[in-house]
Write a structure and sequence with these properties.
Blueprint: H1 6-51, H2 60-63, E1 67-73, E2 79-80, H3 89-94, E3 100-101, E4 113-114, E5 117-125, E6 128-139, E7 144-152, E8 158-165, H4 179-182, E9 200-202, E10 216-218, H5 224-237, H6 244-253
Parallel strand pairs: 9-10
Antiparallel strand pairs: 1-2, 1-5, 3-4, 5-6, 6-7, 7-8
Length: 255
């Protein structure tokens, strides 16, 4: 058969495709454990950042030893038995038999359904809760935004906020990553003295001379819909459909 024949050309091309496919598949399988390990390490880093204890260059695994992952039942706010490391929140939220389906009036974060349990993270000192780190997510303008919110042991005072995944517009909605904007959150109060959820983002900026400044954060300039998404996801997850029952228990029983 001539080297220039169509059959031979197609045969060589097919063989090259098969070999390349096998190599790519083998590489993907071989690298998967490393990818999963890197993903887990990045998650731990973001948790430490939200808690305000991350330092550049620190050993992530060593630093994370002070963090206690726990499973919480959203309906009751109780901690439950189970392996929080093995619990796949995203998978559970997509299981029609297990997921909690949200009505339109409940779903202010626009996420449709959530897992019945969530993995939260505790930092304790002498047996007392010092920091509670909560994973939260909801729709922005272009994407689902994922973050960790860290609260003090009073389950009300924000210690930090760290967005770790989103697809918002750089320079606009993407400013959720801006350290200057995130620096406004520590010290803010989620609830008033009566236990009503009051946290909000203010378009045009917070006026420190007006009442309620402890519940207000500057909005995102030029990114009204992203800012609204941030406010809605925070209010959803801190409300009765999210971590509200857990936070209420902590506030009543003490840290």
């Amino acid at each position: 058969m001539s080297n220039d024949s169509i059959k031979k050309t197609l045969g060589v091309a097919f063989a090259v495709c098969i070999v390349c496919s096998v190599m790519v598949s083998a590489a993907a399988v071989a690298l998967r454990p490393l990818q999963e390990a890197n993903k887990a390490r990045e998650t731990k880093k973001n948790i430490l950042q939200a808690a305000g204890i991350y330092e550049p260059g620190m050993n992530i695994e060593e630093g994370f030893k002070v963090v206690e992952p726990r499973l919480v039942d959203l309906a009751t706010g109780n901690f439950v038995e189970g392996d929080p490391v093995a619990y796949d929140t995203k998978k559970e939220s997509k299981d029609p038999k297990k997921a909690i389906h949200l009505d339109a009036d409940q779903d202010i974060a626009k996420i449709r359904q959530i897992a019945p349990k969530q993995v939260v993270y505790l930092l304790k000192k002498d047996g007392q809760l010092q920091t509670l780190i909560l994973p939260v997510y909801g729709k922005g303008l272009w994407s689902t935004m994922y973050a960790f919110v860290a609260l003090s042991g009073d389950a009300n005072t924000v210690k930090g906020l760290s967005f770790y995944e989103h697809g918002e517009t750089p320079g606009l909605g993407g400013e959720v990553d801006n350290p200057l904007w995130k620096a406004q959150w520590p010290g803010k109060k989620l609830f008033d003295k009566q236990g009503h959820l009051k946290i909000q983002l203010v378009k045009g900026g917070v006026d420190p001379s007006k009442p309620g400044v402890q519940h207000k954060v500057d909005g995102l300039s030029g990114a009204t819909l992203t800012a609204r998404g941030v406010e809605d996801l925070i209010r959803f997850w801190m409300g009765k459909e999210g971590y509200g029952p857990l936070l209420e228990q902590i506030r009543k029983q003490g840290a």
